[in-house]
Input
Amino acid sequence: DLMRDTGAGRAYVREALRRMEAEGFVSIEEFRGASVRRLSAADIQAIGEVREVLEGLAARLTATAQLTAAARAELERIQNELDGAAARREIDRYHAANRRYHAFIIQHAGNAFAALFIERLRVPILGLQLRAFLTSEGGLDRNPDHRRITAAILRGDAAAAESAMRAHIRRGNKDVAALGPVLGR
Output
C-alpha cells in the first residue's frame, strides 16, 4: 500500500519502516506487516519522565546561555503573547505560542542531542498531548509555569529554570496520563 500510495520503491519503503521501528513509531511483525505502535500507559509515563529531564536540562542550559538582547526580547515577546492569549482564553493562539516558547528554549539550550531526543519523544505522544491540551482548556492554566521559567531564564538562574520546567512538564504528563481511561488504556 505504501509503495502504491507514495510511488516509492520496495527498498525505500522497507528502510523507512525499519527506521520508524527503531525509533519506536512502528511495530513490524512477521507475516502481518507493519502497524503504528500503540503506547501503553507505562510507555506514556516513561516518555513523560524522560521529557521532564531533557526539557528541564534545556531550560537550565538556556538560563546559562549568553542570550543576546534580541533573544531576550524574543522570549519576553513570546511570554507576553502567552499571557495575552491565556487572559483572553484564545486556545489556538496560546497553543501556537506554547510551541514557539518550547522551541525557543530548546534552540537556545545549544545542545543538538537534547533537541533531537526531545523531538523524538514528542512525536509518539503528540496526539495524546493534543487531547490533554484540548481537555484542559488548552493548557491555559499552566501559563504561570511559563512565567516562572521565563523569569528564571532571564535572571540566569539555571536551577530555578530547570526546576520550573520539570514541574511544568510533569503537570502536562499528568494531564496526558489522565486520558488513559478515555483512551481505553
